[in-house]
Design goal:
This protein is mostly helical. Helices cover about 65% and strands about 0% of the residues. Helix 2 runs antiparallel to helix 3. The two termini are about 15 Å apart.
Length: about 80
């Protein structure tokens, strides 16, 4: 069971605040190994649901990631949306 799985609601979904919190956890290495690609994924998903702070963090991380890392982060978000 992954970190996100613990926060799923009855529909098997996450809200924007939880997605943002997951992004912070991965960004800071809080309870998980630090992974900026995974952090960007969660900030991106939260931003898509209207979370303004996640939009800012997503933009900041995007500037720090290499093009390859950014492509991977975006692919991870797409994969999550397809499940």
């Amino acid at each position: 069971m992954g970190m996100a799985d613990k926060h799923l609601d009855a529909r098997g979904d996450l809200n924007a605040d939880i997605m943002f919190d997951l992004g912070m956890n991965y960004c800071l290495g809080r309870g998980v190994e630090r992974d900026v690609r995974e952090a960007h994924k969660w900030f991106n998903l939260a931003a898509m649901r209207g979370h303004e702070q996640a939009r800012r963090y997503r933009m900041e991380l995007a500037e720090e990631l290499s093009p390859e890392e950014l492509r991977e982060a975006l692919a991870r978000a797409r994969k999550w949306l397809q499940k």
